[in-house]
Specification:
Two copies of one chain form a homodimer. The first copy, chain A, is 34% helix and 15% strand. Chain A has nine helices and 14 strands. Chain A has helices at residues 18-26, 46-63, 77-89, 103-112, 228-233, 243-259, 261-281, 307-319, 344-361, and strands spanning 7-8, 69-74, 95-100, 117-123, 147-150, 152-153, 158-159, 171-174, 191-195, 206-211, 287-288, 299-303, 322-323, 334-337. In chain A, helix 4 (103-112) links the parallel strand 3 and strand 4. In chain A, helix 6 crosses helix 7. At the A-B interface, helix 1, helix 3 and helix 6 of A face helix 1, helix 3 and helix 6 of B.
Chain lengths: 369, 369
C-alpha cells in the first residue's frame, strides 16, 4: 500500500479502516459478479437485499441487539432525530426530560419544545460543558414520556461513563460519536440513534436501534419519512435508502467483528485514549478541556492557552501527516478524535509529536522538568 | 476495461457512466493528494468545501440556474420533499393544488393534506395513469399557495412535455426521474426537487432548486432539518451532508458538461427512446403502457399481455447482459429506464433482443408479417 495515507483525527466524517476502503475500491465497478457497482443497484434487487440484511444482522451480532428491537437505516443525521424523537415519542403526557451536556443535546432540547413540554433535567452550559452530571445531579420527572441525553459530546470531549437510572421512564440516547466503541447494554434503552459518519460508515446514514413497542404512536403532524413505525414496517426501505453507505456500513460491521467486536474495540480505544491523555498530562503547556472523570475516549480536547501556539500545533502536526487536529470553533484549541478506525500507531505518532512540540515550544515537562 | 459490466436498465438507483466510476475508484484511497478518501473528509475542510462549491457551480452552469435561485443538497429523497414542500410553502392561504399523474404525485397529495387544504387539479387514477393531462384538463385554483406536479412518472412511463401555465401561482415540480435529461426553463418554477439516484448520483442525495424568496415562511411545526431557509443560510451544511454523494454528483456534472450539456443529452435521450419505442411498435406481441403523446423519454413501459411471457422476456434478456428490465409491481410487464448514463449501444443491444424475442415467442412482426 502506498505510504501516502495520513493519520486523520477528524471528528466526523472521519477515517475508515484501510482494509474496508480497499475492499470497496476493488468491488467498485463490479460487485460480486453482478457487472455493476453497488451504487448502481436497485434497492429492491435480491443482491442489495442481501447487503442490507447482512448489515442489519452483523450489527445485531456486534451490539448484541435483542429481537424486540428494530435496527433502522435512515437519513438526515442526528439532527433529524432531534425532531423525529419528540414527534414519535412525546405521545402520552407530551412531556420529556432533556439533559444538556453540550451543543447537540442543547439543539435537541430546543427542537423538542416544538412538539411538547420539555423539562431540562440538567444543564452544563454554566461550566462550559466540562462536566458530565452524576446520577444525583439529575432532576428527573416521573411523568416524562422519555429522558433524552447525548452519551458522548464530540465538541467538548466529554462522555458518560454510566447509563442514567430513569426509574422506568424510557431512555433515549444520541450515541453518534461513541456507538460501537465499547459494549452497550441495549436493553437499558428505549431508543438509540447515531449519525453513522464517525464510527460506522461514510456520512449520509443514520442508525436507529429502538424497542419496537415504542413506535406507532406518532403525532399526526409527523412527516411521512419521520415515522419510526413506517420505517419498521418497510424495513428502512419506504423509499430508496442510502445504498452505498449501507454497503460501507456492512463492510465496517464485518471488520469490527473480525477485529474481535466491541469488547476488543473498548480495550483498544481505552489504550489509545489513556496513552494520549497521559502524554498530554506530562507537559504543562497542554490544558485538557474536560474534567478527568468526564473525559471522552473518542474525542480528546486540549489547548495551550495561546491561540497562536494552538494554530502552530495544528500546522506543524499537519506537516508530519497528522491532520484535522483543530478543535471545534466553540471550544477552540485542539481535538484528536480516536474512533475505531484510528489505530494505535496513529496515536503513538501523535504522542511523539505532542512531546516534541512541548519540548520545542512549551517549556519544561512535569516529569523531566 | 473488463467486459463484465452489464447494461443496467434499473429505474433508480441506476447505471452511472463508466468514466465517472473509474475516476471515483482511482481516487478512493487518496483524493488529490490529501492522503484520505472523500468518505473520510471533514465536511468543514477546505478540500470538501471546494468539492461542494464545484458541485453547485457546475449544476448552475449545466441547468442555467439564475442567481436568485438556491441549489440545495439534502437528504431523505423525494418522499421527504412531499412533506417539506407543504410545511414551507403552504403559508399564505394554506391551500395548494396537486396534479395526480402517478404513484408518487398521489403520495405527495396525501401528505400535503396533513398541512393544509389540498385541491386535486387532475387525477389520472381512473385511466391507470396512461395519460398526461393537457392544459385544458387542469382545474387550477387562483388562490393556491402553489401548484404541485410530477414531471416524469417513473412507474408508469409517462412524462409532461410542456410546463403547465398556473397563471402566476408558484409552480413546484418533482423532477426526480427527468432532471438533467433535457433543457428546462428554471425560471418557470418556484421550486424543483429530485431524488438524485436516477440521473445525477448514487442514492442518498436530494437536489432542490428554488427561488430564494419562496423560503423563510415555514409553518412553526417544521422539523429543523426540513426548513429550506435554514438550508439556504447554512449552504446545505447545517449538519453533515452526504459528502460522498455530493462528490459523485460533482463528477456527474463534469461528465454531463463534457458530453455537451443537457442540450446534447436531450438529443441522445430522444434518439434512444425513439429507437426503442419504434422497435417495440413493430411487433404486436408488445403493448406500450403510456398513450403516445404522454410517453416518457426516460422510462419505457411495455408488456406482452402474458405474465409468463413477460417473465421469460426479463429472464432471457438477463442472460444477454440486459438487466433490471422487470416492470414495477403496480404496472407489471417490463420497463427500460434510459437515463443519461445509458448509452446508445445499450439501447441498440436491447432492441436487437426485443426483435429476437418477438420472432421467437411473439408471432409475426407488423412490418414483415
Amino acid at each position: 500500500m502506498e505510504k501516502v495515507r495520513v493519520y486523520n483525527f477528524a471528528a466526523g466524517p472521519s477515517c475508515l479502516p484501510l482494509a474496508v476502503l480497499l475492499k470497496a475500491q476493488k468491488e467498485l465497478l463490479n460487485y460480486e459478479g453482478t457487472g455493476m457497482s453497488v451504487m448502481e443497484m436497485s434497492h429492491r434487487s435480491p443482491v442489495f437485499s442481501k447487503i442490507i440484511h447482512h448489515a442489519e444482522n452483523a450489527c445485531r451480532k456486534l451490539l448484541h441487539i435483542p429481537d424486540d428491537y428494530a435496527v433502522l437505516f435512515l437519513q438526515g443525521g442526528a439532527s433529524t432525530q432531534f425532531s423525529m424523537v419528540p414527534l414519535n415519542l412525546m405521545n402520552k403526557n407530551k412531556k420529556a426530560d432533556y439533559i444538556i451536556t453540550g451543543n447537540f443535546s442543547n439543539i435537541a432540547t430546543t427542537e423538542a419544545k416544538k412538539y411538547g413540554d420539555v423539562h431540562v433535567a440538567y444543564d452544563g452550559t454554566v461550566n462550559h460543558f466540562i462536566h458530565i452530571p452524576t446520577q444525583d445531579e439529575l432532576s428527573l420527572s416521573a411523568d416524562a414520556d422519555y429522558v433524552h441525553y447525548c452519551a458522548n459530546n464530540t465538541i467538548y470531549g466529554t462522555q458518560w461513563h454510566y447509563v442514567p437510572d430513569t426509574h422506568g421512564v424510557p431512555l433515549v440516547a444520541d450515541v453518534s460519536s461513541c456507538i460501537a466503541s465499547e459494549p452497550i447494554d441495549v436493553t437499558k434503552f428505549a431508543l438509540l440513534y447515531a449519525g453513522a459518519q464517525k464510527n460506522l460508515s461514510p456520512a449520509g446514514l443514520t442508525i436507529v436501534i429502538m424497542r419496537k413497542d415504542m413506535a406507532g404512536h406518532e403525532q399526526s403532524i409527523t412527516p411521512l419519512m419521520l415515522s419510526y413505525q413506517r420505517m419498521i414496517d418497510k424495513e428502512s426501505m419506504y423509499n430508496t435508502p442510502p445504498c452505498f453507505q449501507i454497503y460501507m456500513f456492512s463492510l465496517m460491521m464485518d471488520w469490527l467483528l473480525e477485529q474481535g467486536g466491541v469488547e476488543e474495540m473498548a480495550k483498544r480505544n481505552k489504550e489509545k485514549a489513556d496513552l494520549l491523555y497521559h502524554t498530554l498530562e506530562q507537559y504543562p503547556v497542554y490544558r485538557l478541556h474536560a474534567e478527568k472523570d468526564s473525559r471522552s475516549t473518542m474525542n480528546v480536547t486540549f489547548r495551550t492557552g495561546d491561540e497562536k501556539l494552538d494554530a502552530l500545533f495544528v500546522e506543524e502536526a499537519k506537516k508530519e501527516g497528522l491532520v484535522n487536529l483543530k478543535g471545534h470553533r466553540l471550544t477552540g484549541g485542539m481535538r484528536a478524535s480516536l474512533y475505531n478506525a484510528m489505530d494505535i500507531d496513529g496515536v503513538k505518532t501523535l504522542c511523539t509529536f505532542v512531546e516534541k512540540f512541548a519540548r520545542e515550544y512549551g517549556g519544561q515537562s512535569h516529569v523531566q522538568g
